[in-house]
Amino acid sequence: MLRMERGVFMWVFLLAVTFSLAVAYDPLDPTGNITLKWDVISWTADGYVAVVTMNNFQMYRHIMSPGWSLSWSWAKKEVIWSMVGAQATEQGDCSKFKGNIPHCCKKTPTVVDLLPGVPYNQQIANCCKGGVVASYGQDPASAVSSFQVSVGLSGTSNKTVKLPQNFTLLGPGPGYTCGPAKIVPSTVFFTPDHRRKTQALMTWNVTCTYSQPLASKYPTCCVSLSSFYNSTITPCPSCSCGCQNKNCIQSDSKQLSTAGINTPRKDNAPLLQCTQHMCPIRVHWHVKLNYKDYWRAKIAITNFNYRLNYTQWTLVAQHPNLNNITEVFSFDYKPLVPYGSINDTGMFYGMKYYNDLLMEAGPLGNVQSEVLLQKDANTFTFRQGWAFPRKVYFNGDECMLPPPDSYPYLPNFASANAAAAIYRLATSAVLLLLMV
């Protein structure tokens, strides 16, 4: 009986591990994913023409420059005759074709978005943004990317088309896991006057979810804390982001004046400023002022990467008082309520054309704002670090917070060491008085 129970336990454990690796779950964005939709809009002599649409349904995680790349494996011997709004990175071996040469003959093509400014005859709607896709919570209209592909040597009907397999989405680095393609009800399209609707000849979807451990072995940001009631600044924990980038550069180094030092590399390798935490991003939360009915906090985000500008950045904070937020002065703000009545999470992001670009490391490499929050007499306190955030995310990745016992404490609450010293001093004084 014991052996049987152990066997069942191991089976359940392996099933849980397999499920956790295949599917990522974000408790602050439980329905967030990127959905790839393939709509077959016409049949051709040897295949079909499809519009592929990438919808980013993630509330606060976007795809930033240098953009997405998408790959898959063909089920048969398909080729890509032509593309509009995107291109395959390699043509492959097309030597068997004598007349028209396909755009791509590879068994596993890799496709990237076109850059802005390409000729109009190479564009379709929602294309040509360099692979940059906004998060749905920040800008729903820009949370989509599309391209058109003409596929040959494939089936020419719903019964003979074989769905592509093994989808891989880089956005731009690893982190996304894509499921299999599934046939769904055909997409319905409306004409511009909305008086007629048509539908795709065939539609299938692919769902991709994000996992931070898959994207990076270490965190990519950290949090430091300070307050008006304590002169101590709690820094980011040492090596918060792993200290794996040993080739850092000092902020006053003469190398920074070298031409091309700020140019991004193809492998996206960072050039970090030498710090104790060695993170590309530091978020500082400062408890600034205390009023009768309100309190005020300042949020500052600093970029320590000399090779990267963060476009359309997002910052998510979890704090119980965000349900009574009164005003955000220099950022845009949107509450995130994934569980209905629980309103303790919000997304901060830059104002368009003002501070939605976080510049590379240096004098301009920071953005900041202040937040005014109304007090709830039943819950508000400055004790035990209540005024500091519970969780912080930058661009969808969770940041490393300092340990709770290092938070700035109120002056009338002495630390354990200070209390012990006072006790020893008082004891010595009593003994001295008894001896006199």
From TrEMBL:
The keyword Glycoprotein applies. Residues 1-24 form the signal peptide. The keyword Glycoprotein applies. GO terms for cellular component: plasma membrane. It comes from the Eukaryota. InterPro entries: COB_C, COBRA_pln. One of its GO terms (biological process) is cellulose microfibril organization. It holds the Pfam family COBRA. Keywords: Glycoprotein, Signal. Residues 220-408 form the COBRA C-terminal domain. Coiled coil: none annotated. Belongs to the COBRA family. This is COBRA-like protein. The lineage of its organism: Eukaryota, Viridiplantae, Streptophyta, Embryophyta, Tracheophyta.
